[in-house]
């Protein structure tokens, strides 16, 4: 397992391998090929940040550009899934959810239940999320708690290249609608990734660091920051259990509760806005199911309840930082 | 008319009669208080679903609307199970978990009635895409009303179907009212075919009270889609006999509007007159069907009333993630 590739390459490789394995896997999205119908070259972009580059060359018409009309092509992916295909539709930025949410939550998410179990909807919706790219209020949000709130959707937040590949292959093979969210600041992150296809099961947290003093539950890009803080504090003799749930739905409640029962102290790190967030959700979990184990009030580290600002000076203080995480850990230890 | 066999003509009448009797009975039972929730009835529009679905097989798929009972029946969904579903019973098409607005049977190619106005057309692009990728000659039919004709989802899907050259047919059943708002006022064009032209697809319209007019119009569009000729748009001009939902007093309609349509343009009466005048069927053939369907609908209500309520454990099953 010596080979290192980026998070972005891991996603590309997962798509490529699954398309090769299964003819029913098809891709659609805005400029995921790039150049369709234009006088110049095809596969000009391979996705707005190049994540799907090269797949058109290998898989031809199974990689489809769509007009900028998300309701229609996300809905087409849902409809095709209900007919037995395994579409992977790219929503480019998760912020564009507002123009196609109905097809995701009222259609895909509810088919199986509304139809009395008689429908499978194996669709994957890929989208990038997260702040730090100076992309401002409509291209930077972390909206995973919205999807997590809705019954019928599985929500995946890979935090490393290894997880990105294994979780995406799992998403494609899963028979239910999956929202697969890629943090745009992680695309260039390098890590060891096996060449062969592999899956990582949903609902099984990754214990990124083991420790007995404080439990830190972190999501997506925040996992790396939490691990950095844990490594720093370990030198002072403070040991942190850093838990990456990997999927917010299903959620591995058991691993989180087990850790809280051991440490008695909880910090939740969530890049999204604080109200009705994963931070509040995990805090509620601790309070309702592990209250007697808690030795201190729960601390949350989140963005403020504002849109994502553009100015780098403001965006840098919007995003949770290692300093803020460290302060929260120290606070629960007081 | 002459190209249809006697069997096919009997089938068409049986389908329309089943839809009519089903809807009239749901209307009556709802008024008595036996049916929970919302119901939106298709009575008056039977020739539309029938004239189109007569061309389809199980690999062809349709998406429907909140006014979906007629589409379900025309696509072959079991009537006994449908009635049980509307009563919210365990034996229903969806185990009582969907109700009137969400009846589906994917094995029959019925992708679901849909509670969201304009929810179906994007799904039908997915049906068309599946047939195209798998190189079958199957088609997808999006049924929607004049209300949904103004939804972005519908217009986006028409564009996508043309851009991807999909075997899809967009059928607007223009019954004159989006809920209580007239389509004369809410639809920006005088003629839907003009709108279709703007999306690069052939558009046509037909008299939705005349089964044969719908059948012929659909035949051409479906044949074009099956042979790789891409999407089409059909406006079926029709009328609904009941309100938007049951309980709607319909004070927005003209005096005697519905009575006039019933007396002069009822699709079942028109069909009966045409086929008997042309000596294609006997009145007795049709009377026999009337009798059979009356018994079937009686039986469906009897069974629905007697069926069990879903047991409590059904609340938590058939959802993708359980907690």
Structural descriptors:
heterodimer; A: 334 residues; alpha/beta; Rossmann fold; five-stranded mixed beta sheet; 12 helices; 36% helix; 19% strand; B: 323 residues; five-stranded parallel beta sheet; 45% helix; 10% strand
Describe the fold and architecture.
The complex is a heterodimer of chains A (334) and B (323). By secondary structure, chain A is α/β, with parallel strands linked by helices. Chain A folds into 2 domains: 4-192, Rossmann fold; 206-333, Rossmann fold, CATH 3.40.50.920. In chain A, 36% of the residues lie in helices and 19% in strands. In chain A, strands 3-2-4-5-7-6-12 form a 7-stranded mixed β-sheet, sandwiched between helices. Chain A is globular. Chain A starts with a strand and ends with a helix. Chain B has 323 residues and is of the alpha/beta class. Chain B has a single domain (6-316), classed as Thiamin diphosphate (ThDP)-binding fold, Pyr/PP domains (Rossmann fold). Chain B has 12 helices and 7 strands. Chain B has helices at residues 6-32, 46-53, 69-74, 79-86, 120-133, 152-163, 183-186, 192-198, 211-226, 257-265, 267-277, 283-306; strands spanning 61-63, 140-145, 168-174, 177-178, 181-182, 203-207, 232-237. Chain B has a 5-stranded parallel β-sheet with strand order 1-2-3-7-6, with helices on both faces. A two-stranded antiparallel ribbon of chain B has the order 4-5. In chain B, a hairpin with a 2-residue loop joins strand 4 and strand 5 (181-182). In chain B, helix 4 (79-86) packs across helix 12 (283-306) and helix 5 packs parallel to helix 6. The model of chain B has no long low-confidence stretch (mean pLDDT 96). At the A-B interface, helix 3, helix 4 and helix 5 of A face helix 5 and helix 6 of B.
